[in-house]
Protein 1
Amino acid sequence: MTTDGPQTGPTPRVGCVYRPQTAPERIGAAAAAADAAGLDELWLWEDCFLAGGISAAAIALSHSTRLTVGVGVLPVPVRNVALAAMEIATLARAFPGRLRIGVGHGVQDWMAQIGERVSSPMTLLSEYLTCLNGLLRGERVTFHGRYVDLDEVQLDWPPDPAPGILAAAVGPKTLRLSGELAAGTVITGGTSPDQLRDAVSHIRAGQGSGAHRHAVVTYLLCTTGARAHRDLLDEIGEWGFDPGADVGVSGTAEEIAVAAQRWLRAGTDTLVFQPRAAAPIEEFVDFVGTEVAPLLRR
C-alpha cells in the first residue's frame, strides 16, 4: 500500500451510500443529516427486493435543500424506458440540479428471478441509454430495436437541462459502452485504485477522440470507530473480496482522507463512502460530511 500526498486535481465531490438494508422510513432523516453536514451527495441503491430507487430518491430530495441525490443504479430490464424517463423528468424538474441517475444491467440472478433476464444485456443497455437520453432531451423518439420499441414518444414535461445519465459498468465492454453513451460511470465498491485506473482507460477508449466530459463515481468501502480496521476486514470478507486487496479505507477522518487519495489519483471525481450495513447511517453521513469531506476538498 502506498502513501500519497495531497490530491491536486479538481475538487472532488464527496458522498455516502444509504444502504437499502436500512429501513426506508429512515431515508428522510439520513438525507436531512447529510444536508446539514455539508455532504455533497447521498446515493441510494435499488437492490431486489428492498427499497425502490425512484421513490427513495423522492424522499431524500424532499427532506433536503441542497443535497444531490444519486440512484446507483436502476436495473434497465425492470422498467420500460418511457416510464423511466417520465419518473426521472418529474424529479429533475421538481428538484433541478440535484439528481444523478445511474442505470445498469441489473444482477442477472435477480433479473432471472423476476422473469426479466435478457439474452444480451449489452444490447439492451445500449438501446436503453440511446432512447433514455433522447427522451430526457425532449426529443420525439422512434426506435425499433431488439428490446426497446418506441413509436413517436415524447415527454410533455422534459427537464431543462436534462440530467446526464450514468451507467454502472465493470467489464471492459460495458465500460467502453458507458464512455460512448453515458454522461458518467458508476464504479462498484470493492474496486482497487489499480482496477479503477484500468476501468477509466476503457471508459476513455469508449469516448473516442471527441471526448465529452464524463464523470466517474466510485463507491469506496469505509469504516471508522474503535474497531475500524477489524470492521473493514469483516466487510471485505462479507463481500467475498480478497482480504489483502486495496479496496477500502478505515480509521480516523485524517486516515480516511489520506487513503482515499489513491482513488482520486486513479481517476474518480466523486467518492461515495460506503458504510457497513449495520452502521448508524445518520452518524456516518455526519462524520463524512463534517470531518472527511473538508479534508478532501482542501
Protein 2
Amino acid sequence: MTDVAVAVAAARAAAEVLLELRGGGLTGRELGDAGDAAAQEAIAAVLRRERPDDAVFSEEAADDPRRLAADRVWIVDPLDGTREYGEPGRVDWAVHVALWAAGGLGAAAVALPGLDEELVTDPAPALPGTVTARPRIAVSRSRPPAVATAAARAVGGELVPLGSAGYKVTAVVRGEVDAYVHAGGQYQWDSAAPVAVALAAGLHASRLDGSPLRYNAPDPWLPDLLVCRPELAADLLAAVR
C-alpha cells in the first residue's frame, strides 16, 4: 500500500467505528469518550499492520519521545471535534491521519464521516470556484479570536462559526468558506492532516505571522494558524500580524 492508501485505510477504519457508535445509545461526553478510544484503536491497528516500523504521534496516546529522532511519524487525531460528534445531527467533526517524513508533511487523509467524504493529498482536491464577493472566514464556535474580526474587516468578509479545526480547514478546501483564522492555540494533531491536504490543493497555510507551520516538534502546541485561498493571503496576513 502507498502511504496515502494507508492514511485512507486508517481514517476509514476510524470513521466506521465512530459512525457505528454514534448510532447506538450513547450521547454527549460519554459518546465522545467512547469515540476517542475506539477511533484511536482502529487507526493504531491499521498502522501496526501496514507500517509497523513508523512512529505514531496521536492525541489519544502517550507521547513517545522517540518520534523526535524518527524519519517517519504518523500524526493522528482519531476524533477531531469530540463535542460536535457528541451532538446529534452535527457533521463538523473529522478524523485526521498524516505522515510527517523528511522534515515535513506528506501523505494525509481527512475523513468527514458526517458527510461521507474523504479528502486526500494525492489526488489533491480541486479548489472550487473563486473567492466570494464577501469572503467567509471560519472561526471557532466557542472562542472566535479577535484577530478574525480584524481579518474579516480587512477583506470585507463575514465570520462563519464552525466546529472542529479539521472541519474548518477542509471547509476552505471544499469551498464552504474562503479562509480559516485561528489564535489561542491548538495542538499539532489538530491541523497536520488537514493542512497537508490544503497545501496539496494549493491553499495558503501558515502561522499568523506568515512563518511556516512546524510539525513533529518537541512541544505539541501550535499557537495559531491561517489557511486561506491564495488570493486572500496577503491581505489577511497584513490584518492579523
